[in-house]
Design brief:
Strand order of the largest sheet: 3-4-2-1-5-6-7-8
Largest sheet: 8 strands, mixed
Radius of gyration: 21 Å
Number of domains: 2
CATH superfamily of the largest domain: Glycogen Phosphorylase B
Structural class: alpha/beta
CATH class of the largest domain: Alpha Beta
Length: 388
């Protein structure tokens, strides 16, 4: 049995695409006779507070489904203050260095990036000709930060670019969630070994439910992080509800209070907020809706939202409003509709053109079948396992 270590900043019981992606990777490798360990911070995302079950602990170790999970100390915060966020990343990096110093590290290590500084810590301290380092790149930083307006092209940005290049250089294999990510990596290091590794989900999808034909409104649902990048507050303010559409929202995050205040101020609008639910609960409740919307406030180079693959597996039609490679995935696999990223006039026009007669049990089943054959996690993992 081959030992393998996964280093990540997000892991269940935290919610979100990043934690789900790494959890499925760890679980699948364990099932393929790898002895898997995980290094991750004490759970704190997205609240920015250590979860109650882990309070007043410097370290927590558990074994779940045969996977050894080491949860390390972190200064937890969701502050927008860049200095405090830097302290948070450095605190986890410090915990990693302590772990590296006093524990035996396997010869094969998978490192999640971003965060860049955390990935840099792992790549720097674990670099060795006898060790294989795999860098799992889910978003292109610092490019994504520049596009989101979080960074400016200055000295600190140049430093982050240097860190990014160091991480790529020291990796023996780079996994990228999108073709754009791999194109970027090979533009810097043409001979680097890469693998397109999408964030395909692994779960037993519930049976599809036929819609209530007496309901004449399109039930639009958003589920996930209520962060700045997703722009759900702006979506609430810009949607044309004369299009006979309702908006149902699940999740939590930085914009939650803004969204709740907007709903309270505009009780006449058909916007409904349910807060955060477990992933298992969400898979069940999503089936009662007609269309899942996936928005991004700005198009982010290299980003392909993992929600595309999760909703497709549920057989849920998708309205994609994020631009980039995600549009190709939706169009090529006939998963739903596309609206031009950032263009709310076009978004409302697309919604207005959708006929309820298009959303049938048969059309949902077809999406589900496409996901089962095209977005196949087991086939993807088989390729990865052979490369480790």
């Amino acid at each position: 049995m081959k030992d393998i270590l996964i280093i990540t900043s997000y892991f269940p019981p935290e919610i979100g695409a990043a934690s789900n992606r790494i959890y499925h990777l760890a679980e699948a490798l364990q099932e393929r006779n790898f002895n898997v360990q995980v290094l991750t911070p004490l759970p704190n995302y997205p609240t920015g507070k250590i979860f109650d079950a882990y309070q007043k602990k410097f370290k927590h170790t558990s074994v779940e489904k045969g996977i050894t999970i080491n949860r390390l100390w972190i200064y937890a915060t969701v502050s927008k203050n860049k200095f405090l966020r830097l302290i948070a990343m450095l605190s986890y990096s410090f915990s990693l260095v302590c772990f590296f110093t006093f524990n035996k590290i396997p010869k094969t290590v998978i490192v999640q990036s971003p965060p860049l500084l955390v990935a840099f810590t792992a790549m720097f301290f674990l670099r060795s000709k006898k060790r294989k380092l795999i860098l799992n790149v889910s978003d292109l930083w610092p490019i994504a930060g520049l596009e989101l307006g979080a960074f400016k092209k200055n000295f600190s940005y140049k430093m982050l670019e240097n860190i990014e290049r160091f991480n790529y250089k020291k990796a023996d294999l780079i996994l990228g969630q999108s073709k754009e990510i791999l194109t970027h990596v090979t533009s810097l290091f043409p001979k680097k070994e890469t693998l397109l590794y999408r964030n395909y989900p692994e779960f037993d999808a519930p049976e599809i439910i036929a819609r209530n034909t007496s309901d004449k409104k399109i039930k639009l649902v958003y589920a996930g992080l209520l962060g700045i990048a997703q722009g759900i507050y702006k979506l609430c303010t810009e949607l044309d509800f004369n299009n006979h559409v309702e908006l149902h929202i699940y999740g939590s995050g930085a914009e939650q209070k803004l969204i709740e205040a907007f709903i309270e101020k505009h009780p006449e609008l058909p916007i409904y907020f349910y807060g955060r639910v477990t992933r298992e609960e969400l898979h069940k409740v999503l089936l009662q809706y007609d269309i899942a919307i996936i928005p991004l406030l700005n198009r982010i180079y290299g980003s392909v939202p993992s929600k595309i693959f999760e909703y497709a597996k549920l057989g849920l039609p998708i309205l994609y409003f994020g631009g980039g490679e995600g549009e190709d995935v939706i169009n090529n696999n006939k998963l739903g509709w596309i609206a031009t990223a950032g263009d709310y006039k076009d978004l409302n026009s697309v919604i207005g053109s959708i006929q309820l007669s298009e959303i049938t049990l048969a059309s949902k089943q077809k999406i589900k079948e496409t996901a089962a054959t095209t977005f196949n996690l087991k086939a993807q993992l088989k390729t990865l396992s052979n490369m480790l």
